[in-house]
Task: structure prediction
Amino acid sequence: MGGSPRESGYVLEPLAIDEVQEVAVIMSLDVHGYFAAVREIARGAVEHVETPIQMAIRAASLSTPWAVLAHNHPSGSSQPSRDDIELWHDARERFRCAGLTLLDHLILARGSFYSCAWGAYWTIKP
Result:
């Protein structure tokens, strides 16, 4: 099964390493829970990205009803902002209303990430 926070973090780690601005992506999982696709849905500035939830829903629904939302923090800190937490709650509800399941919202930084679903930090080991 590929939908755990640790596995999602490993798949999305390059986003945290390679980008110098915030980028939001939606990762879809197939009917067996394995990673199906990762689609970029927004690009922002160094410290902020506007995440269009409707676009995330549309991108996720192209593959399966399960998805993980993620964005990076180029600052190097995976500490979620108040906006990040509000986005998680809003997106999860809007996905539910669309008949989809948003499994998590990950905030990625070099070497670590935060899982909104678990309310916990994870370390990405080389």
Notes: The chain has a mean pLDDT of 85.
